[in-house]
Amino acid sequence: MNAPVSTFPLLDTVADPAALRRLDRKQLPQLATELREFLIESVSQTGGHLSSNLGTVELTIALHYVFTTPEDRLVWDVGHQCYPHKVLTGRRDGMGKLRMRHGVAGFPKRCESPYDTFGVGHSSTSISAALGMALAAKHKGEDRKAVAIIGDGAMSAGMAFEAMNNAGVADADMLVILNDNEMSISPPVGALNNILTRLVSGKTFNAARKGARHMLGFAPPLLELARRAEEHVKGMIAPGTLFEEFGFHYYGPIDGHDLDALVPTLENLRNLPGPKFLHVITKKGQGYKLAEADPILYHGVAKFAPEQGIQSGKGGGKLTFTQVFGDWLCDMARADTRLVGITPAMREGSGMVRFANEHADRYYDVGIAEQHAVTFAAGLACEGLKPVVAIYSTFLQRAYDQLIHDVALQNLPVVFAVDRGGLVGADGPTHHGTFDLSYATCIPNMTVIVPADEAECRRLLSTAFALAGPSLVRYPRGSGCGTVPSPELDTLPVGKGEIRRRGGGVALLAFGPLLGAALAAGDELDATVVNMRFVKPIDADLIAELAGNHSLLVSIEENAVIGGAGAEVERVLAEKGLEVPLLRLGLPDRFIDHGDQGQLLAELGLDKDGIVRSVRARAGR
Asked: Is the dihedral of CA 334, 335, 339, 342 positive or negative?
């Protein structure tokens, strides 16, 4: 019996970049075709980021073909485009467990491979990291290259320009590649996008770049003359090119799917000294028609059949916290014309599509610029408006100074609708929202709110909106226990929890959606169960009451146990001189890896069985 013929005969021969570099250049287009087909087949079975990875297949092949990786450093920005890189660097067999527990991570991760030179997950860090690597090579006298690959959406963030500002005067031998696919996760916004669009769309510049492509094919002795000629032509067409003002030599734009252009261009740029900037045009979803037609839908996907594509609109799923927020935002906007909605480039993820359509004049997508989003909201609040900033917990970390200095210090009424609080699952430690209760509760003037279910989320968002100062409403990814929110915009008393079950000598104080696990544990333990609702101001009177008639208090939170909600309970007990024992259950003092949310919670002892075990171990059966 004959062995089956491989679907990927050329890809099968590429176990690592060294094998890739042994290929004839004429074989690279076939490799790109096979790699793209493999990605579609693989990601359709595991879920993950698809359209962004399809758009960087040729660029990834060209980079590993030209540069001697891992000695030469490739730094991928964000990491949404790293799957081709992972396949080509020896992790193809592991892609079947992509983003699963103990499987291949969805982002570059230094401990996973020497080819992952820098761990990423948040945007706009690549130029800074690559600059550090380039200058480290210079200090150590090492002849190696540093390349930052950054998208046009990530390029809009302030950190990218801070790095450019530094690199342009640091005499750094580095290459920045702008992967311009005219997309962030959502469509791009801002003046930079307009500049890039003009660079790409100008007919005269398009004609000039064809000439520049031939120039870049010259032999090394003529490269400097070619560069000067190219600069002269570009100076007549696009004077004061933004990137050249930062001290970079700008090249492009070139077609990021044309290996016959990419490879020789990179080969020549590799040998040019100093800071260089290559503008590459790619298409998100390239090679898969459904993803090309709707790159937003295919940005992050669950399992699907490639032949049929993603089947949406079937209904039947539970309402998510994100949807609850999106509906509340639209309803509250109709009730109060002072409301404005702000997102740092997360319209879809934060549930703001409907609001953007219905209230376009009050919707602001500021791009990947979390610091600006928060201070922008503060400015709006100074003038009597009521800003609601929709942001992921992990991304709010990037604007911590603004949260303190520009909002809380001035006691401005900004509502932070903080999505993805707690463990998010497959995206892993760069995206888990595990620190927000710790970093927000210590800020004066800040009200910190943790709804336990969907119906309560709507009421507590209304409660936060009614406050005269800053507030943070923190809710998880996905669905809770399935409660149906009321259409009303009613509020709940600030700083007051509720007893949901009365029991014996143990009181379980649940903060947020872990209330469901606490209630189940309470039934088994015959314990009192409390829905605390507020971390700050915490219900000190209720804690004192519970301390007076229970022998053990247990705080339960999906947040770092250090400095979180349990720390507030402990503070109240200490200030009131109450000596009842307190068991604090939460996330341990380490970064939590990627994996299924439920599985992670069980491993960390934050499901029903884990709570029961911990209480019995502390109190005895």
From this structure: negative
For residue 26, pLDDT over 50 is answered with yes
Q: What domains are there in the chain, each with its CATH number?
A: 68-284 (3.40.50.970), 321-474 (3.40.50.970), 498-619 (3.40.50.920)
How does pLDDT run across 512-541, given as a tens digit for each residue? 999 999 999 999 999 999 999 999 999 999
pLDDT at 383: 98
Is 398 an annotated catalytic residue? yes
Which of 58, 370, 454, 456 is an active site residue?
A: 370
What is the residue type of 142?
E
| pLDDT tens track for 74-88 | 999 999 999 999 999
End-to-end alpha carbon distance in the chain: 63
Q: For position 215, what pLDDT does the model report? A: 41
Average the pLDDT over 368-395 and give the result: 97
The whole-angstrom separation of Cα 376 and Cα 366 is 9
| Catalytic site includes residue 284 | yes
Closest CA to 550 of 571, 580, 578, 572: 580
Q: Is the alpha carbon torsion for 296, 298, 303, 305 positive or negative? A: positive
- What tens digit of pLDDT does each residue of 113-170 get? 999 999 999 999 999 999 999 999 999 999 999 999 999 889 988 899 999 999 988 9
The pLDDT of residue 203 = 40
Active-site residue, selected from the candidate residues 234, 284, 362, 458: 284
CB 319 within 8 A of CB 93: no
> What are the tens digits of pLDDT across the range 355-374?
999 999 999 999 999 999 99
Q: Can you give the pLDDT at residue 228?
A: 47
Please indicate, yes or no, whether the overall pTM of this predicted structure exceeds 0.85: yes
Q: How many residues does the chain have?
A: 621
Q: Give how far Cα 331 sits from Cα of 144, 343, 453, 533, Å.
A: 56, 18, 19, 22
DSSP category for residue 317: P
Catalytic residue (one of 73, 398, 420, 536): 398
For the chain, the helix, strand and coil percentages under 3-state DSSP, each to the nearest 5: 45, 15, 40
Strands (E), 551-601: 552-560, 582-587
DSSP output for 494-551: TT--EEEE--SSEEEEE-STTHHHHHHHHHHHT-EEEE--EEES--HHHHHHHHHH-S
